Amino acid sequence: MELNKLANILKNNDIVLAIGLVVIVCMMVIPLPAPILDLLLTVNISLAVVILLVCLYTQEPLDYSSFPTVLLIATLFRLGLNVSSTRLILLHGEAGNVISSFGEFVVGGNYVVGAVIFCILVLINFMVITGGATRVAEVSARFTLDKMPGKQLSIDADLNSGLIDEEQAKERRRKLERETDFYGTMDGASKFVKGDATAGIVITIINIVGGLIIGLVQLHMDIRQALSTYTILTVGDGLVSQIPALLISTATGLIVSRASGKEESLSADIKNEMFSDPRVLGVVAALLGFMGLVPGMPTAPFLFIAVVTGGMAFFKTREKEQQIKQEEAHKVELEQQEKLGKKEKRAKATKESVMELLNVDTIEIEVGYRLVQLLNVEMGGDLLERIAQIRRQTALDLGIVLPSIRVRDNLQLSPNSYQIKLKGVALESGEVYPERHLAMCAGDPVGNLAINGIHAIEPAFGLPALWIEAKDKDLAEMSGYTVVSASAVISTHITEVIKKCAHEIVSRFDIQQLIDNLKKEVSEEYVNDIMKDISIGDVQIVIQNLLKEGVAIRDLKTILETISLQSKINKNPNFLTEHARVALARNICKQNLADTGELYVITLSPDIENTIAKGASPDGMSVTLDPSFTRALFDRMNLELEKAITATGNQPVILCSSPIRLLYRKLVERTYPQIAIMSYNEISPNVKVKSVGMIKIETQRK
């Protein structure tokens, strides 16, 4: 029973690691018997060899992400062994068989030779390997952190352009975070190795001085006996400690100097990069052979290595010749196959090329060659990052997930021009100057600004503007102008186009994705129950109707519940849309609130509403009115809108009764697409409504 409990404890890696760390700390305080110290010293050497081999066979540094922590534990373990061995040497004049063997066998019992070898190992470890590894770790950490923003933008750019999907982008971001954490940690962990080397020197000096004092003063040895006893043991202890330290320092150098992205081991890289060119090996063989024939030089070793290197060059040359012959034979075979099936391949290639031409991107932006710098992160371009923000903001504002927005250059455009395409058709275009800023003011004319610039019209809202130089930006802002960059102008234009065309962008596939996402968030059974009486096509039409009037569809659950319930009465899409608007009344009011928190409205007179209702078609899809009445209605509406905007500084909404809301919307949407038309049923109870005008026609009865 007890053995089973012990086995279960040992299977838990966290418990074993915790016990190991506690034991390492206790080693510095509790004396260890010599046999246990021998065992632990052997474990230390084995652990160092394991770490070195793991680093040697690691293809990428991130494959050994636990290395900094392992380095700390190994360093602490080695220092604990140093303390334990020092205690045994100074107390008993012996430190076990491992240290004695290193002191007697490795250095031949000569403490002077041992001291020299120890000093050489320390210098190699401290000045060469540890110093180099520390510097490489510092530089790697600094450059990795510096490159992190650029890499993140590169991931966003690939995601926006459709080269990768969301899951691949998340995986690349996780890898980037791990890489940054690894190199940042290695920058500090490399100091462990440097400190360990320093501690090894200090401990060795303390052991020798302390041993001489104990031997001469306490044990009354003569100086030669004291030197022989304590110095050999101390040097042996130093060698036992420095050899694992040297191995781990080498492992640290390997892991921090290993280039990322390699798909092969280090040995394979060295073989392919150093010993694959027979010309290099041939030159080396000739040079060594010449040196072996020079009088006075050792002939045998030079000629032996020259023969080996020459043999390698010979076999590499034959291997390359065979490879070239195989490639030529393969090329001939391909040419024969091409001649035999030339017509079939040409027909297939033509078909494939034509099929590629049928692919149409939902949203596409083409830029002139001077605007390419706005896409280049290294040149300070942030357009791709702004496009990524547009996709996120559209999801928050409208509740739809935009497809990837493809950005490409077009040499047929003028250098500073761009155009926005929807499903392959250019909708809108503009012209920007990447080295300048756009200054806009809705009040005074731009000509009153006492700075030079290029007169222009802001492409998204049609405001008069001026392209000014960067040095005049502060002056323009102090003069009351809004100043934005070229990339901000393009991104704002894209945003407005997306808002106007959202109902055309959203597809049945997008609707299906939104419904599938709702199944994950709420319940699949719940969504299936709602959808049993309606189709994806019905939902798509309602969603498109809502988006056409700028209504956000984030509350998809409410929309689907309303459609499902009202479809039992009438499945007409316009009927379902009007009820969905009523269900979304709170959101619609919030979207149209003024800066003061009030809802400014312009109402329709009862006579106008009655006239519109009488002119409605039987199916309620259209309205037929007298042209003079329509002209008078538009004139009066335009007058009331101008008065309201002048008085309040905000865009009011047109408020009418529910039966004619859709008819009135269809009547004015071509002339006033930006005006929100609401019914009385869409006013939320907690919204404060303020009437700023009424549309009425005095002569309508004539």
Helices and strands in order:
Elements: H1 2-11, H2 13-27, H3 34-57, H4 67-92, H5 96-106, H6 111-161, H7 166-218, H8 223-257, H9 266-274, H10 278-293, H11 299-340, H12 342-357, E1 363-367, H13 383-397, E2 405-409, E3 417-422, E4 425-431, E5 436-440, E6 454-457, E7 464-469, H14 473-478, E8 482-485, H15 486-505, H16 508-521, H17 524-531, H18 536-548, H19 556-566, H20 573-583, H21 585-592, E9 599-604, H22 606-614, H23 627-648, E10 653-656, H24 658-668, E11 677-679, E12 689-695
Parallel strand pairs: 1-2, 9-10, 9-12, 10-11
Antiparallel strand pairs: 1-3, 3-4, 5-7, 5-8, 6-7
Which descriptors would you attach to this protein?
alpha/beta; 24 helices; Glutaredoxin; 702 residues; elongated; four-stranded mixed beta sheet
Task: Please tell me about this protein's structure.
This protein folds into 5 domains: 24-267, no CATH class; 275-359, no CATH class; 368-500, FHIPEP family, domain 1 (Glutaredoxin); 506-583, Helicase, Ruva Protein, domain 3, CATH 1.10.8; 595-702, 3-Layer(aba) Sandwich (Rossmann fold), CATH 3.40.50.12790. The chain has 24 helices and 12 strands. It has helices at residues 2-11, 13-27, 34-57, 67-92, 96-106, 111-161, 166-218, 223-257, 266-274, 278-293, 299-340, 342-357, 383-397, 473-478, 486-505, 508-521, 524-531, 536-548, 556-566, 573-583, 585-592, 606-614, 627-648, 658-668, and strands at residues 363-367, 405-409, 417-422, 425-431, 436-440, 454-457, 464-469, 482-485, 599-604, 653-656, 677-679, 689-695. The strands form 3 sheets. It has a 4-stranded mixed sheet, covered by helices on one side. Strands 6-7-5-8 form a 4-stranded antiparallel sheet. The chain is elongated, with a radius of gyration of 40 Å.
